[in-house]
Amino acid sequence: MLRSVILAAARSSRVERLVETAPYTRDVVRRFVAGSGTDDALRATRELVADGCTVTLDYLGEDTVNPEQAIATREEYLALLRALRDAGLTPAAEVSVKLSALGQKFDEQLAFDNARAICVAADEAGTTVTLDMEDHTTTDSTLDILAKLRKDHPRTGAVLQAYLRRTEADCRDLATAGSRVRLCKGAYREPESVAYQSARDVDRSYVRCMNVLMSGEGYPMLATHDPRLIAIGEDRARWFDRGPGAFEFQMLYGIRPEEQARLVAAGFTVRTYVPYGDQWYGYLMRRLAERPANLAFFGRALLSR
Ligand code: FDA
């Protein structure tokens, strides 16, 4: 219930203005977002790489409404990839891209062209691109664009969301050689017709999808902070004989950093998803919805002044 309310607020521009102008919002944002500019992204990447992690960088923004914004987002990614290469941070760092930030909602061809330009720049920098997955109305379009991108850029990856009923079948389609799939639970408010609603059903679906990916021929990227699912991932890695270069764990910046360090120390490949930029509102609200305790954190930050 609370999750639904927060996710509804994530789409409200009135609540967005209220949250953005609240005096101590920035303190909360800083926990989940590396900063506003490329320099902040590079600094966070350097620190994580020094700690033994790999990184995927997300320039925050979604639901772009005009071509100018979409092109500005593309240009930011091109500049970021050049900066990562010049700083010697590739291939340890790659980028994650939301197609809605590149124009998907109003011009799919433009989104594809922008994503292709980012894939070309990633190739030049010696690294990869992963397409984030947004709400279920975009899944078919995102997977179509993925298939087209993979013709010239076969290492382009995508996210699949275990809460969608279709995802086990999508995992089967994508568990092929060279295919990179990031499996997460799913962070949007979705209707029962397309998505499992209970945590238990989502977790069970996650395990079924993980089994398909870990037993397949692709490169699974297990994106979760859930201790039980991480333990099952470790078990499947042993069972299917997947070493550090054959799959990876992924977690979000600022969430369970001690667990990220534990997995690195245990010899696993761990990738931290690092968001940066000024358009943090939708991202922050999804993090708050995942864990109501974060609201208390928000409240404490406001009250402690
Ligand atoms: P769950 O939410 O059950 O959390 C398990 C435990 O992890 C909690 O008990 C808590 O300890 C900790 N935790 C989880 N979330 C927390 C939070 N916000 N703050 C503090 N602690 C927290 N979703 C999507 O729809 N499309 C996408 O493209 C992506 N991309 C993506 C990339 C990566 C690398 C990750 C890790 C996640 C995503 N997600 C996503 C988000 C994902 O769908 C999901 O909402 C979150 O990962 C939370 O689910 P968990 O699997 O962590 O389990």
UniProtKB/TrEMBL annotation:
Residue intervals of the Proline dehydrogenase domain: 42-297
Keyword annotations: FAD, Flavoprotein, Nucleotide-binding, Oxidoreductase, Proline metabolism
Binding-site residues for substrate, renumbered to this chain: K98, R286, R287
Catalysed conversion reaction: L-proline + a quinone = (S)-1-pyrroline-5-carboxylate + a quinol + H(+)
GO biological processes: L-proline catabolic process to L-glutamate
CC cofactor: FAD
EC number of the protein: 1.5.5.2
GO MF annotation list: nucleotide binding; proline dehydrogenase activity
UniProt entry tagged with the keyword Oxidoreductase: yes
Pfam families: Pro_dh (PF01619)
Chain positions recorded as FAD binding sites: M133, Q161, K185, G186, A187, T224, H225
EC supergroup of this enzyme: oxidoreductase
Domain of life: Bacteria
InterPro entries according to UniProt: FAD-linked_oxidoreductase-like, PRODH_bac_arc, Proline_DH_dom, Proline_oxidase
Note describing how the cofactor binds: Binds 1 FAD per subunit.
Keyword Ligase: no
Pathway it works in: Amino-acid degradation; L-proline degradation into L-glutamate; L-glutamate from L-proline: step 1/2
Protein name: proline dehydrogenase
Biological source species: Micromonospora pallida
Lineage: Bacteria, Bacillati, Actinomycetota, Actinomycetes, Micromonosporales
